[in-house]
């Protein structure tokens, strides 16, 4: 299998970028997009060139580091699938594949396909944590929660923080990410004790870094974890709840 790859090259954050074209042969349909980049970089290195910079870690679809835009779509053509699990079988033999970094004002390019996504981390640092008193473990049934509530919380907790939602949003909003984090922690009894102050801090940080949400819905379409669009509603829900109650509980 052979593919022509148009890949974005940008040596420095402030430097001008450009597309560079490479013909990559000896591919298998079962290979992932990241393995395509591996093979391309191997060929570039053999020719004495500078390999393309890109991020990856687990390559198991759970870390979110592999975020790139493939043919105009964050991660790639297969819905709810991270780039590391996008297979080359999605592309016809001999076709052209365009690969570029996430595009957002909140994601400055570090180099080639690698962007700075510290804004998501700053949202979590603002309030995406739980304070608990260390010591003797409480009784297992002290804080009761139903099975359905636990499952709903875990569904929102599935967000891997890849940031594809921001790259897909016309406004560069992070509300799908933010809403998933707020909903996850609000639905569990111990984190819910800090629900109001958490919402105030995280929403303020998200508003500072990212754009407002206008409910286009592209975010949910590209989310590899399948976070539903209803997560966006949790941002205003928690914001209003904090404004009305003025406290945590």
TrEMBL record:
Annotated SUPFAM superfamilies: 2Fe-2S ferredoxin-like, 4Fe-4S ferredoxins
Listed cofactors: [4Fe-4S] cluster; [2Fe-2S] cluster; [3Fe-4S] cluster
Residues annotated as domain 4Fe-4S ferredoxin-type: 150-179
GO molecular function, one term: metal ion binding
Organism domain of life: Bacteria
Keywords for this protein: 2Fe-2S, 3Fe-4S, 4Fe-4S, Iron, Iron-sulfur, Metal-binding, Oxidoreductase, Tricarboxylic acid cycle
Any one GO biological process: respiratory electron transport chain
Cofactor note: Binds 1 [4Fe-4S] cluster.
Its EC number(s): 1.3.5.1
Reaction equation(s) it catalyzes: a menaquinone + succinate = a menaquinol + fumarate
Protein name stated in the entry: Fumarate reductase iron-sulfur subunit
One protein family per Pfam: Fer4_8
Main EC class the enzyme belongs to: oxidoreductase
NCBIfam families in alphabetical order: dhsB, PRK07570.1
Residues in 2Fe-2S ferredoxin-type domain copies: 1-103
Family membership: Belongs to the succinate dehydrogenase/fumarate reductase iron-sulfur protein family.
Matches recorded under InterPro entries: 2Fe-2S_ferredoxin-like_sf, 2Fe-2S_ferredoxin-type, 2Fe2S_fd_BS, 4Fe4S_Fe-S-bd, 4Fe4S_Fe_S_CS, Beta-grasp_dom_sf, Helical_ferredxn, SDH/FRD_Iron-Sulfur
